[in-house]
């Protein structure tokens, strides 16, 4: 099959919320069986293995829902010149298509990981890390527009619940209002964030410093009463070597006040030290960092993680598309990586 035919088949499965994930897994099994792969289920993930490999490739099967703005059928691959349109073609069925096509071009050992629930809760990769031992190197086949990403920021996400005393606003004082306590805490976060910006920048990332955001806040129920309850949800996207500092600071701030801290995500950053000649001759590009969050962040620190896939990155957009020529180039790189890992 041509690589665009493989992609067309993958697009035909409606994997929004993983609804047709098993149908897609059946296609992958049938396709790879002809190329001497063996299969196993790890949790609800599919793992395909050919020989004892030093390299693995990881792709998630789920997509975001299709918006009403699509001009074509989202589950039918449409080609217009070099552009291939379809739901999930970019994020990230193009990556899976490149994996499958690369497997047909070489007989060397390789392991493929097919996960689920990446778009919502990362349940699939959590299944894998609980049970699976990974090879030396894993390529995460997300759309990077052929940029080679060898570092990823961490995520420290948390909720803080504040308590106050409900009284009429005519007799209110600052210490009784849970919203004031929340805003004071937010100011502390902003001061801390400003201090972190003074640290040595990591220019691998487009945002070279650890960043902070307060994404949600809710409190109070009446304009003429002090707020008895208020909560916020905030996160830090941490540079390598600063995650522990953030974790300790938030815990210390929460211990200094009568508040409740709930940690929602505590995911370490990573930065691979790529050895000269290990992969740079194949990629022939500078390594960069990923400001966002992918499944790479969950893999063991002992595994070299590279995020690399086709482009352009039109993820989560109506009329999502990928370049056919970019897809072919990426599949060729995957093939070369498999070949090199067996030497």
Task: Describe it.
The protein has 343 residues and is an alpha/beta fold. It folds into 2 domains: 223 residues, Zn peptidases (Aminopeptidase, 3-Layer(aba) Sandwich); 114 residues, Alpha-Beta Plaits, CATH 3.30.70.360. Helices cover 30% and strands 26% of the residues. The strands form 4 sheets. It has a 6-stranded mixed sheet with strand order 1-2-6-3-7-15, sandwiched between helices. Strands 10-11-9-12 form a 4-stranded antiparallel sheet, with helices on one face. Strands 4-5-16 form a 3-stranded antiparallel sheet. The longest helix has 19 residues. It is elongated and about 75 Å long. It starts with a helix and ends with a helix. The mean pLDDT is 94.
Percent of residues in helices comes to 25-40%
* Major sheet description: 6 strands, mixed
SSE arrangement, N to C: HHEEEEEHEHEEEHEEHEEHEEEH
| Distance from first to last alpha carbon | 27 Å
SSE class: alpha/beta
Mean pLDDT: 94
Order the strands across the largest sheet as they lie in space: 1-2-6-3-7-15
The quaternary organization reads as: single chain
Total strand count, please?
16
Domain count, please report it.
2
Layout: helices, strands, pairs:
Blueprint: H1 3-11, H2 21-33, E1 38-42, E2 45-50, E3 55-60, E4 78-80, E5 83-85, H3 89-105, E6 110-115, H4 123-131, E7 137-140, E8 148-152, E9 154-163, H5 178-196, E10 211-219, E11 229-238, H6 243-255, E12 260-267, E13 270-271, H7 280-283, E14 287-290, E15 304-307, E16 321-323, H8 324-341
Parallel strand pairs: 3-6, 3-7, 7-15, 8-14
Antiparallel strand pairs: 1-2, 2-6, 4-5, 5-16, 8-13, 9-11, 9-12, 10-11
């Amino acid at each position: 099959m041509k690589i665009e035919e493989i992609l067309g088949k993958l697009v035909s499965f409606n994997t929004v919320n993983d609804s047709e994930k098993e149908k897609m897994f059946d296609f992958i099994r049938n396709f790879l069986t002809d190329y001497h792969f063996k299969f196993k289920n790890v949790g609800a993930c599919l793992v395909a293995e050919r020989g004892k490999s030093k390299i693995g490739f990881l792709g998630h099967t789920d997509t975001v829902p299709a918006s009403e703005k699509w001009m074509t059928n989202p589950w039918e691959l449409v080609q217009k010149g070099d552009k291939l349109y379809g739901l999930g073609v970019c994020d990230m069925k193009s990556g899976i298509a490149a994996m499958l096509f690369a497997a047909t071009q070489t007989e060397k050992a390789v392991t493929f990981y097919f996960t689920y629930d990446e778009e919502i809760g990362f349940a699939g990769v959590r299944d894998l890390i609980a049970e699976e031992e990974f090879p030396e190197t894993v390529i995460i086949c997300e759309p990077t527009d052929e940029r080679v990403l060898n570092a990823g920021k961490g995520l420290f996400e948390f909720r803080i619940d504040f308590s106050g005393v409900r009284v009429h606003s005519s007799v209110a004082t600052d210490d009784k209002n849970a919203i004031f306590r929340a805003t004071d805490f937010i100011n502390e976060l902003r001061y801390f964030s400003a201090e972190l910006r003074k640290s040595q920048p990591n220019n691998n990332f487009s945002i070279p410093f650890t960043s902070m955001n307060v994404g949600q806040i809710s409190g109070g129920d009446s304009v003429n009463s002090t707020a008895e309850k208020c909560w916020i949800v905030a996160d830090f996207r941490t540079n390598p070597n600063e995650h522990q500092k953030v974790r300790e600071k938030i815990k210390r701030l929460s211990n200094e006040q009568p508040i409740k801290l709930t940690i929602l995500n505590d995911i370490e950053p990573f930065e691979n030290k790529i050895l000269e000649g290990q992969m740079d001759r194949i990629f022939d590009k500078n390594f960069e960092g990923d400001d966002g969050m992918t499944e790479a962040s969950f893999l063991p620190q002992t595994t070299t993680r590279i995020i690399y896939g086709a482009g352009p990155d039109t993820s989560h957009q109506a009329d999502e598309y990928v370049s056919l020529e970019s897809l072919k180039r990426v599949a060729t790189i995957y093939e070369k990586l498999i070949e090199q890992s067996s030497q």
